[in-house]
Design a protein that fits this description.
heterodimer, A: 255 residues, alpha/beta, six-stranded mixed β-sheet, three-stranded antiparallel β-sheet, 9 helices, 9 strands, 32% helix, 22% strand, globular, disordered N terminus, B: 263 residues, mainly alpha, ABC transporter involved in vitamin B12 uptake, BtuC, 11 helices, 0% strand
Chain lengths: 255, 263
């Protein structure tokens, strides 16, 4: 496709974790995480509440330190991050255009283009705190795109959106990936919607339960155990296993 | 005709307002008002330190304010009950400072001057210190502006952009210590927090961008200083408290203006 800006999937991952353990105080949150994200792929992280999804994102960003193991980011990696929610302090007046230039200044034309791309053209002078949930997520995505990212990292970007809003947002993410060729790592609860837009799904519950193509994960017993409707199934599940599946990614190549 | 001492007082107040405007805006945005008070109250302990060691008062307060600011930031980072800890530090430091000053200085120390300021006795030397500190703080904030604003908005967003939120917190702690040290003479330890928060709060009612708020906070601070000094001169009221009253009046007026513009 013409819009890929010469980026191609290459062997070296953009971000990888090797034997990653993270503790909050004495509480283990993540253990034995081995994963890697390559150029251009869309990877979705799914898992129940408290399974460490946001913590894993923050460890990959370098916000949360690893207790042991390593996180490796490609040198000069540009990350476009969309946080789970932006806790907006109403004492801080912040027009959308100003927000898009934080911390790096962008021209008016670039800002207008980014807002247009994410479907919220013309919001420049609106206050960030006055936007609807859907507008805010699109503005956050526009900000992430302005940095010309190698990878977009989206932490439950559709919280607070209605069903059509969620579908439209993920369609937008898929379009952006197709145009720019950037990788996407996202966290989601909205499994069925997200899975269609994902190349690979990682199912997390403190450790990686299973991973692979969306279809393969949907059929995996670990996945159904985690997401069975009944709470009893969740309680019974002891995830005393951590085996690889046939579609497991390449573990050997950590820069 | 304005007397020389009144000109010096005005210049000192304007210097403080210049630094307090942008710094106070961050204090408001980051909900650091108690933090500002704790640091400011520690200045009294700094006065005692300066008296005991025969250091310049500005140096003693700078050291103590920086130390307490750092200690409180460390407490907050460890997730203790933050406002409770801050009150313990703020009043503990204030009370210990008052005790220590009377021990170190005997009966000759005019405590009121340190608590409420002594702007009418500002010397040319004091002016140099106030303006030196103010320019230093403004330069520091301008240099780090974008990074400070990003990590104020969202620390994870700042980290993802390659910034270090902990470093930006340290910048604010240092700037706060400098403002406390130079403002002690002007409004006193008890009212420094007011000079940080009230002009910024008045600006907040009207500003549409962070930069506009910082500039308007400086304007509100300057108006408060000039208005308060004028009132103090005419009515023979204490200068420091008069300045803060003027700031509070501006804040109330800003609420009225906002109500009219938004209605």
């Amino acid at each position: 496709m013409s819009g890929l800006r010469g980026r191609r999937v290459t062997g070296a991952p953009l971000i990888s974790a090797t034997g990653l353990h993270v503790h909050h105080g004495d509480l283990p949150v993540l253990h034995g995480i081995d994963m890697a994200i390559s150029r251009g792929e869309i990877v979705t992280l799914v898992g129940p509440n408290g399974s460490g999804k946001s913590t894993l994102i923050k460890a990959l960003l370098g916000v949360v330190p690893a207790s042991s193991g390593t996180v490796t980011r490609a040198t000069g990696l540009r990350i476009g991050y969309v946080p789970q929610s932006l806790a907006l302090d109403t004492t801080l007046p912040m027009p959308v255009a100003r927000f898009l230039s934080l911390p790096t200044r962008h021209s008016k034309a670039e800002i207008a283009e980014a807002l247009e791309r994410t479907g919220v053209a013309g919001l420049q002078t609106r206050q960030l705190a006055a936007l609807s949930g859907g507008q805010r997520q699109r503005v956050l995505l526009a900000r992430a795109l302005l940095g010309d990212p190698d990878i977009l990292i989206l932490d439950e970007p559709t919280q607070g959106l209605d069903q059509p809003g969620i579908a439209a947002f993920y369609a937008l993410v898929a379009e952006v990936r197709a145009e720019r060729g950037c990788a996407v790592l996202m966290v989601s609860h909205d499994l069925t919607v997200v899975m269609r837009a994902s190349d690979r799904v990682i199912c997390l519950n403190g450790h990686i339960c299973c991973q692979g193509t969306p279809e393969a994960v949907l059929e995996a017993p670990e996945y159904s155990a985690l997401f069975a409707d009944s709470a009893a199934a969740l309680a019974i599940y002891r995830h005393a296993h951590d085996h690889s599946h046939d579609h497991a990614h390449d573990h050997g190549d950590h820069g | 005709m304005l007397d020389d001492f009144l000109v010096r007082a005005g210049l000192a107040g304007v210097g403080v307002a210049l630094a307090a405007g942008p710094l106070g805006s961050f204090v408001v945005w980051r909900r650091m008002a108690y933090f500002g008070d704790a640091t400011a109250h520690a200045a009294i302990l700094g006065v005692a330190l300066a008296l005991a060691l025969e250091l310049p008062v500005v140096l003693g307060t700078l050291i103590l304010a920086a130390f307490v600011g750092w200690a409180v930031a460390a407490l907050a980072a460890r997730g203790r009950a933050v406002d409770m800890s801050l009150i313990v530090v703020a009043y503990g430091a204030l009370a210990a400072g008052l005790v220590a000053v009377s021990l170190a200085g005997g009966g000759r120390v005019n405590l009121e001057a340190y608590l409420f300021g002594d702007i009418l006795t500002v010397t040319t030397g004091d002016l140099k210190v106030v303006w030196g500190g103010a320019i230093l703080v403004v330069a520091l904030l301008l240099w780090r502006w974008s990074a400070l604003l990003t990590s104020t908005l969202n620390e994870d967003l700042a980290s993802a952009a390659g910034l270090d939120p902990a470093r930006e917190r340290l910048v604010l702690t240092l700037a706060l210590a400098v403002v406390v040290a130079v403002a002690l003479k002007v409004v006193g330890a008890l009212l420094i927090g007011a000079m940080l928060v009230i002009p910024a709060a008045a600006a907040q009612s009207l500003a549409r961008s962070p930069e506009a708020m910082a500039v308007m906070a400086v304007v509100a601070g300057v108006l408060s200083v000039l208005g308060g000094l004028a009132a103090s001169y005419r009515l023979d009221t204490p200068a420091g408290p008069s300045i803060v009253v003027a700031a509070a009046v501006l804040f109330v007026a800003s609420l009225a203006v906002r109500r009219r513009t938004s209605a």
